[in-house]
Design goal:
The complex is a heterodimer. Chain A has 16 helices and four strands. Chain A is an all-alpha fold. By secondary structure, chain B is an alpha/beta fold. The N and C termini of chain B lie far apart (65 Å). Classes of the chains: A mainly alpha, B alpha/beta. Chain A: Keywords: Cell membrane, Membrane, Transmembrane, Transmembrane helix.
Chain lengths: 381, 277
Amino acid sequence: MHWLGQPFQERPTQLFIGILIAALAVVTVLNLALPAGHPLHVSTYTVTLLGKYLSYALLAVAVDLVWGYLGILSLGHGAFFALGGYAMGMYLMRQIGDRGVYGDPVLPDFMVFLNWDSLPWYWQGFDMAWFAFLMVLLAPGALALVFGFLAFRSRVTGVYLSIITQALTFALMLAFFRNEMGFGGNNGLTDFKELLGFDLRSDATRLGLFIASGVALALGYVLCRAIVGSKLGRVCVASRDAEARTRFLGYRVERVQLFVFVVSAMLAGVAGALYVPQVGIINPSEFSPLFSIEIVVWVALGGRATLYGAVIGAILVNYAKTVFTGVMPDAWLFALGGLFVLVTVLLPKGIAGLLAWRFKRPDFHDRHPGDGNLSREEATA
Amino acid sequence: MNILKELANRDRVFDFLAPADSPVDVRHGPILYMEDVTVSFDGFKAIDNLNLTIDDGELRCIIGPNGAGKTTMMDIITGKTRPDTGKVWFGSRHDLLTMNEPEIARLGIGRKFQKPTVFEALTVFENLELAMSADKRVLPTLTARMNGAMRDRIDEVLEMTGLVAQRRQLAGILSHGQKQWLEIGMLLMQRPRLLLVDEPVAGMTEQEMERTAELLTGLAGKQSVVVVEHDMGFVRSIARKVTVLHQGSVLAEGSMDQVQGDPRVIEVYLGESEEAV
């Protein structure tokens, strides 16, 4: 398991994990220790908002893993996020028990409303937490496995793959809108009461979910760093830039792509599962193509192929969205689009590129070609 | 079941009895032996009764005008093209016509294409690391660890290709010549017995050509090298033995001087190109 331990020896990863833990600790202390009227007090509302940003950040890291390192621009990662969210939502629905409006001990309210007399087969088992949490990983993972297997085996890449991923998430959105699907139609799943016995409306649970999101982000980040820092990560970069050449060296590129794609989908599922209890609802709008494109914009703004750039992008854009939609709701999409255009033109490497340039260190990647001995020969010749 | 069927078949040597990676047998001299090979595409004979023998450790240059069949010949050796008739043997044990491309590559025939393709976002060292023979399935690659022997092998190849100082540089910022050497280095990582090099000095400066000549002559002896090249000056500087191809078969073979004096060669090739030079 040395490859999993590798990231802990890298300076940037240590720094990232350190900042994340410090931020979690500061927010926790400011929330718990200070009285509500204190100017530095962080309200539970803000804590939940930050928890939502952190789950978005994990989603962005998952997208950066496939887009930045594998060169696969997925415009459908919202689908994996939503599937993880629905798996969590189904568990939360079963936890409501007879406390629903209709008081049915087994059936969720919407099923009673639709006059269903028993649970559909795919709702079985979701009353058990371990099963539901397993499904948070397996449902998006299985979809990514089947989808990726078919796409990568046929060597569908580039724009075509992006378009198919859009179609995938759009198709799922239409399917989940239907009441017959058994996922609550366009209302989705909501009115959750408790998670693992903890009251979802209590301040302590909300703080706990915020910390859980932070920990999940840290673990997901380390996992992605371990993958991109391994030899497999270098094969990913190689296949991103010269796929045929990588195949020629004997690597089964389509299997590498499938493996990384499935890992990324599972991370997106975990992000969705953490998102749902914090916002209190999951509905088909999470499948909307627009949301999946927004994720890509976060990553592009933060800086591709850095992982931490994705985190910065997700948090900044969503913070801006919260502020903007409060002040001028109608202008938000224009602001987002404008920001995207500006960054693409002025900062092609995103905010991460700006940071790397500002804190430039003379490490080997920056070495100028003129330092090579051959070029020196050429210069004297 | 298959094994039982094989056992019932008494008149042949069973595949599973022969070691899977049996070494190339060069005790009888040649490492590559082509006899009466003919390939035609839609009636056009790209290779016509070609006979060619490369000795173990030899450095051979193949020249010939455009359309002489040089690339098709390489394609046959690497298994990309199947000849209509003829024999192609690697050593005296391996019939290349029964093998597919990956099998031939694993046997130790490396081919460098004309246009260098290196992984520009990776360092020189990492390029060589990926080219190293290893278990290339997904999970073994994820957990792969570099050991001392691997590091030594990479250092050795860096030394051979003269890229020691560039080991930590991104391949994308190398000069054209350096990229060509890195590409040859990537082939060397797989410890080939026979190296097929297609136009290695196209687009190189004088100094780069000299370095390439040194590199290729240094490789010969340890492995056999076949170079296809247009640049006559370069061929003269490295070749001990030159084969001239014309219309798909061997027109002349011998030292550069012998070949240059051959009136048929002067007529079809050297004459024109000497004038051009």
